[in-house]
Amino acid sequence: MKRYELIVVGAGPSGLSAAIEAAKRGIRTAVFDENEKPGGQLFKQIHKFFGSKEHHAKIRGFHIGEELLAEAAEAGVEVILNATVIGLYPDKEICVRQGEQILHYKADTIIVATGAAENMVTFPGWTLPGVIGAGAAQTMMNLHGIQPGKKILMLGSGNVGLVVSFQLMQAGCEVVALVDAAPRIGGYGVHAAKVARCGVPFYLKHTITKAHGEDHVTGVTISEVDERFRPIEGSEKYFDCDTICMAVGLSPMSQLLKMAGCEMVDDPKRGGQVPVIDEYGETSVSGVFAAGDVSGIEEASSAMIEGKMAGICAAEYLGYCDEEEKEELLLVQKENLESLRQGMFAPKNRGKKIEKTEEGIPISENLLERGFVSDEEIGRFPGVKTRAEIHPVIECTQNIPCNPCQDACPKGCISTGSSITNLPFTVDNSSCIGCGMCVASCSGQAIFLVDESHSDDSATVTLPYEFFPLPKQGDKGFGLGRNGEKICEAEVVSVKTSKAFDHTNLLTMRVPKEFAMKARFFSAGA
Fold this sequence. Notes:
This protein is α/β, with parallel strands linked by helices. The protein has twelve helices and 28 strands.
């Protein structure tokens, strides 16, 4: 039986982060993962992360995965792939299936970072080919370059449903509708807004009542639901589609911890059955830690910090650092984690209806119910101001932990003030040079450069553009409003790409001056 000082189960963001923290202190560390490639969900995540510099803000998920793998290799972490851990016992022994063999390994301490599994919902036809989870769709698109379908209906308006809907469109798919039984959109408003301005309709208070087809999906019927989530007869709506994508939450994969004898609890706010842990991830079994989604569903940024904390605690448990050093290291990580757990989407606010921002501004009801801030509402937010010269318009309307916009501006035109969750605003008397770094750096694609001084009767709007083929200078089309509807004629003035923009192209379009504060996307053609 092979022995390690530390065994980590799961080579995702939390598991790799834990292994790196332990191994760089000299601990002999092995990571087991059932997949053929390490990195977990990170390599499916082509979008830019939120947060601050400490949280990998404005860096795309797959780049973060590459960084973690490089750090793990440098630290001497042994990563064992195609290795499914099928048993974890109280004496810190694991049973692993590797090919046709069942092998046993022993460790002095264990960190379980097995992540979570996608939830599903049932309805007539839900077993038809073409009904898939959002994670499966991401795997097909972002790992294998395969379209999940041509016409897709998304069920679920949390961050996963919103982000994957946008990525489906980037892959050339048509998203015919985004549906959720809840009365309000569950994910970040900026994610919803970038989907809405591409023309995707939102159907809140609706659910799927039937998938149509004989040997594959050919269509779907949705129905409005009452306050008890029961379909309302006569409210049915039919959509042609070949794929139904479900993003209806995740459940922690905590079976190994239960097998090890850890005390467990059913906690809906953390996603289901999770281990009872202390603030740094140690379970009721001494020397067994949990990190990431297995201990409670959160974002990947939080999972990485939890992994680091578990790795530090494992180092102290094994005698590789003393109590004082551990506390100093954990204090930094705890502060980083707490900053991510602030704002409207903090764990403490789950299930609550937030009616005002931290600044006292009424939340956009249109955003919550239809996916976009209306023209009448947008002006009340601090980042939305008009100026005679070129200037940023920041359509960030919810308190989320994110501030790369203020770091990106070389002239200090943008600030979030004293807190990472404050709504960003333009600094008085600042001078925008039109470089577009703020537009490219915004993880929510919520910043635009507006120049109403372009000519007597026209203005230019510079927006983030991540679709192919790229429009060309001189192309004519339409400016789309925040709701995705055509509102004016538009012409492409320029399309800028740069390594510094990290694959976010800056498209500048000319629109009639009266639409400068309304046109937010470009559509080519008639």
